[in-house]
TrEMBL record:
It comes from Mucilaginibacter aquatilis. It is found in: Cell membrane. InterPro entries: LeuE-type. GO terms for cellular component: plasma membrane. GO terms for biological process: amino acid transport. The keyword Signal does not apply. Coiled coil: none annotated. The chain crosses the membrane at residues 6-27, 39-61, 73-91, 111-131, 137-163, 184-204. This is Lysine transporter LysE. Its main location: membrane.
Amino acid sequence: MIFLTFILGLVANFIGYIPPGNINLTLTQITINRGMRQALRFITAFSCVEFFFTLFIMQAAQWLAGQPRVGTIIDWVMIFLFSIMGTITWLNRNKPPKPKYSDRESIRYGIIMGFINPMQIPFWMIAGTYLLAHEWILPGLFALCIFSLGSACGSFLCLYAYAHFAKYIQSKFALSTQIINKSIAALFFVLALYHIGKQVYLIFFKVH
């Protein structure tokens, strides 16, 4: 049962990081601009934080799901985050990659992004509440720790696959860093606009 709990966490979080978001888009940019070595350090640091992030969110999942305004707060946080990241990426779109990058810089960036990860909160609010309600995860801290360990491994594997895919796309189509930076900036802005549109719909058009 413990092994199944680990696999459940791995599979769930692997799926959770497939849709484009602030983490995998940032990783794509790091991979292309800095190389696989720096990307691997980012992924490792991020996945270590993901263990604690998942553990905390899973313990608070049912409480968060019961808060009526938590979804709105998360949307506005993501609007702010995507707008800032899109702006920074766009302003730096023409800067050539540095010849060398510090390993500490990528590790520190991975740790920071591990804590600034609002997109995973609604995912675990839904998935976590469902798994706990249907008793797919045994009660108790030990089982949640095993699940969170699987979650960390799932994020590592998905992001590692993203990094390799980014390198493949770059080599296959010979894309410049300028084109990739512009594309990532555009995706950040699109994600921000999606959450703005969602809030506009909920405020002005949804029938209560």
